[in-house]
Design goal:
Length: about 350
């Protein structure tokens, strides 16, 4: 028997820059001809959601807009052109809600670069609502029996760091430094790196985050709040030769790490920029970058194939996202903790409360 779809639902809506976000009732959307309507069960809360709330970036944000882009749920309705998904299937709503699928970027599996891309919780309504519409082609396919609360953070945080690790070109047996390792992205990056055969150097601040990083699989932890020289400490942690890690993943929401990374990455290593601090710039000494053949690159969200690979790691039990479940009505308190840099792991919102 088909689920009765209500006309109204609870949602967390961005109505003004800086918040607070509004918890209110809004109409349930109807799926377009190429969309599915998803009954969201759980949605992760990402630092990008805070950037969206604050309108930090130069990209234009829709206002008002329902936040969120890590939604896991069940298909309850679909448009007439949708194939490959049925009512009752488990799916995920990601940051990339849709793309044109016909431009040069989409045809080369770089759909996140599509000029017509729509972004969940930013340019279109996202997953901080009980029912959300998304393009069927871009909906993440979640295997039956998956824990939807646990898999929600994989849909952005997991996918993003997995893609970044692939972009780093680090090979099994090599080392990677993860900056911001104690946060939601970092906690997953450690595990994906370990699962991919890499040695992990975790960089973050405070004893609690250090303990969490080591528990998740980091071999060494560098505390930037007590380190006298980040460059020296990271190099010392990179193995017997002390030449630095082969790759660096920059996940931090602050600018300073983006200025430090080329100082400790190994010659011919790769620095991958993933975090996007508001107004931040990347700088590096040109001479050192050239003669040491350092690569500095950005990595955005993964494509549809990257998504399924990231989910596969999770389904095989290799990734255990540390998370805490709170109700949708508590999302503003999660943002407040984010602002104070007090979150270890990930918060997941239960849409039923």
């Amino acid at each position: 028997m088909a689920e009765q779809i209500p006309h109204e639902q609870w949602a967390a809506v961005i109505e003004k820059d800086g918040g607070p976000i509004s918890y209110k009732k809004i109409p349930v959307p109807k799926p377009g001809h190429d969309q599915v309507l998803v009954n969201i069960k759980y949605s992760g809360v990402c630092h990008t959601d805070l950037h969206a709330l604050n309108n930090d970036w130069p990209a234009e944000r829709k206002t008002p807009v329902v936040g969120g882009h890590e939604g896991a749920g069940v298909v309850v309705a679909k448009g007439e052109l949708v194939t490959g998904l049925e009512i009752g299937d488990l799916v995920g709503i990601k940051w990339l809600n849709s793309s044109c699928l016909s431009c040069t970027f989409c045809m080369q599996s770089d759909e996140s670069l599509c000029q017509a891309a729509e972004l969940s919780g930013y340019t279109v309504d996202g997953s901080f609502q009980q029912y959300a519409a998304t393009n069927a082609a871009h909906a993440a396919r979640i295997p039956k029996g998956a824990d939807l609360a646990a898999i929600a953070p994989i849909l952005c945080a997991g996918l993003t760091v997995y893609k970044g690790l692939k972009e780093s070109n680090a090979r099994p047996g090599q080392s990677v430094a993860i900056v911001g390792a104690g946060g939601g992205l970092g906690s997953l990056a450690i595990q994906y790196a370990r699962a991919m055969g890499l040695h992990v150097i975790a960089i973050d601040g405070g004893e609690e985050k250090g303990e969490a990083c080591v528990k998740l699989g980091a071999e060494t932890y560098v505390d930037f709040t007590t380190s006298k020289s980040i460059v020296d400490d990271v190099k010392a942690a990179s193995g017997g030769d002390g030449l630095g890690p082969h790759a660096v993943l920059l996940l931090a929401p602050q600018e300073r790490p983006f200025q430090q990374a080329t100082g400790y990455v190994r010659s011919k290593g790769t620095v991958v920029c993933i975090g996007m601090p508001a107004g931040a710039r990347v700088s590096m000494p040109v001479f050192d970058t050239v003669v040491r053949m350092i690569q500095v690159k950005g990595s955005y969200v993964g494509n549809r194939q990257d998504t399924q690979e990231a989910i596969d790691f999770f389904m095989r039990g290799l990734i255990h996202a540390p998370y805490k479940v709170v109700g949708l009505s508590e999302v503003q308190s999660v943002f407040d903790l984010m602002k104070e840099n007090k979150i270890v792991g990930r918060y997941v919102l239960d849409m039923s409360r």
